[in-house]
Design a protein that fits this description.
mainly beta; four-stranded antiparallel beta sheet; about 0% helix
């Protein structure tokens, strides 16, 4: 199976920036990491934040983060990034990454982001 580990969460002040990482490892079998679409979610209810195609050719964002967050990936290192700029207190949450290629769907355990004065 595939293991996902998020990192980079921290306590920051409003207006500052953070970059989160999601690194995959484990038994991919015949499916390379570049075949997995990756989504970022946040909070206990796993609200969707951002999407990136397996090869990074397409991205999409929730309205609440559009223009402030950027998702990218480095498939050579099995890593997806979420760059977060102009952070707001309402961005505070545990952030999760999820990798999907039918029928497999993997989740990390999350990393805490707190935006507070």
């Amino acid at each position: 199976q595939v293991q996902l580990v998020e990192s980079g969460g921290a306590l920051v002040q409003p207006g500052e920036s953070l970059t989160l990482s999601c690194t995959a490892s484990g038994t991919f079998g015949e499916i390379p990491f570049s075949e997995y679409a990756v989504n970022w979610y946040r909070g206990e209810k796993r609200v969707w934040v951002a999407y990136i195609h397996g090869l990074g050719r397409r991205t999409s964002y929730a309205d609440s983060v559009e223009g402030r967050f950027t998702v990218s990936r480095d498939n050579n290192n099995n890593t997806v990034y979420l760059q977060m700029n102009s952070l707001k207190p309402e961005d505070s949450a545990v952030y999760f990454c999820s990798a999907f290629f039918y029928p497999n769907h993997y989740w990390g355990r999350g990393t805490q982001v707190t935006v507070s004065s």
